């Protein structure tokens, strides 16, 4: 059977994913984004034949098996619903499953949606501990301290000085807030962009994500269905999702990674798992990194540098130079995180991966609400990681 081409025909988000939304439960957050996406797609709820959801996990709402509850809350029953939990990459993996559903030929219209609601069931600090305390994470072989150590290894490998690290982090932190300052969806919308002097006083020079709650949704369709309802569909050109291990040592052991050249397994600072996903997506799309016109990357600490290199946007060890030279600016060679990313837009974990997909769709179809890329663009790429490169997703979109 020939795979159907996957189109994106509608998007919707809850604004300001960088704060808690105490006036909205998870059902209200989800309903807001989904019905915005349905309206944007110019369809009826009854046109949706299946759903793929993402969230952080059972601790967030107090129970599992939640897809039935979500479909019911959205008045979509009776349709099949699937759940995806892949750490920070949950939104992207829900998108991957939605694409699989369309490509199977069994569905012509599918909802992909996620939410983050961390303050209803657990006190916020208990939730934060579950996210980062070694009593929990280290049972999987990973702690968030490891993520920082991996990034230190990146600096060490390429002999990047302390001063250059600082300048790179300052430049990116300011850039992310600048992008967010013009985006009505973003936490930083309308705020004054801080100076380097102000950012220097913040932890990690301001290069940390702004966590909060939110929801984002995308309506997928077959090409035939899209042609009936959409004037500006955006198509999925290539995609890949791979997992390695939460335990970092297993990611660089040739006996535990099938088909990977030993020469690639040099160190933990290279972003190898994401590079594999990006290379797979390029191969499926029939393009190279040189064809990418804009990219979304996971930005926290220094992960944006590693991700840019894993995607081939710049040479290994040169991501900071790329940022400092303006290569990622809105008028640069490859604009990055034009909505502000996790730092400027905000980070709502269970749905975080859907927000950058929505932004790239809007840049490709000319409906971006913040900064608009001034040059004509054809291909946009969204990459995301979860569990510090345990989950790795790359999606290439096109308006062609």
Automatic annotation (TrEMBL):
CDD domains: SCP-x_thiolase (cd00829). One of its GO terms (molecular function) is acyltransferase activity, transferring groups other than amino-acyl groups. SUPFAM superfamilies: Thiolase-like. It comes from the Bacteria. Residues 274-398 form the Thiolase C-terminal domain. Residues 23-137 form the Thiolase N-terminal domain. It comes from Lactococcus hircilactis. This is Thiolase family protein.
